[in-house]
Amino acid sequence: MDFAGKTAVITGGATGIGFALARQLGRAGARIILFEPRENRLQEAVEALAGEDIDAKYFVGDVSQPEEVDALADFAWAENGRGDIIINNAGVGGGRASVIDMELAEARRLYEVNFWGVWHGISTFGKRYKADGLPSAIYTVGSENSLFNALPRSGGAYVSSKHAVLGLMDVLRREAPDNIRLGVILPGWVKSELSELQADAAMDTDEFAALIFRQMQAGEFYLVSHPYNVVRMKERWDEVYGVFEKYAPRHEGDDQGDVQLWAERMRAQRTTQRDD
Question: What domains sit in the chain, N to C, each tagged with a CATH number?
């Protein structure tokens, strides 16, 4: 996708990763619409982008409220003719209690933003993209916690919400029409207001956004940043593969139990029956 002249709608875009991505897209010629509940932060962000000659607007709202995401889409189409790109970036942290001890209401509040907020963005904008058939893009910001537990002894609600986002995007990539480009952004430790750990070891936000933007330009589905993540991923999958090898090793004919292959056989069978 050529981002010049397109409108990028970014939830949670007034600060952190969302704002840094807005700068990258804006410098490439995209028009920007930022969305989040804090109007004062949105005003500051739009002023900063305007200072770089980036066309930027904002709309106040909460991704956990589907009617407010619908209103955001209406605003994008009314103001800019269309919202060509949606970046589901809004997210909240917190919830450092153990899974057993965490208050259910707190976990639900986190999911309302981190998972259902993403769902609302995909549903609202995806339906419009599917209807008009024009080149579009849906990006969702997950986390290294979509792939493994970065802090394995706490944060079960946050980690599981990011696992859920990865699963959602993985299904979507197989369902969406060809006019919709898809990508899941998987940041590691990046300096932002969301991070409870602030240190020089965290990646600079603008450096992160520049790396991600190159992958957006390349059309990647997985958009990544922190090389050491592969070590943590390997730890998980080495254990999983080891248990399979011990208790459920591959053998001749084991493909009969594979759901994807079974579904393909059923589709082929139905096609043959129709042709007959």
Answer: 7-226 (3.40.50.720), 229-276 (no CATH)
The span from the CA of 145 to the CA of 187, in Å, is 9
Single out the residue of 137, 272, 112 nearest to residue 213, CA to CA.
137
Structure tokens at 201: 């070891």
Alpha carbon distance 55, 63 (integer Å):
23
Please state, in angstroms and rounded to a whole number, the distance separating the CA atoms of residues 61 and 107: 21
What global pTM score does this model have? Answer: 0.94
Which residue, among 119, 113, 124, has the nearest Cα to 70 in the 3D structure? 124
Q: Which of 105, 64, 86 is nearest to 11 (CA)?
A: 86
User: Could you report the per-residue pLDDT of 19-74, keeping only the tens digit for each?
Assistant: 999 999 999 999 999 999 999 999 999 999 999 999 999 999 999 999 999 999 99
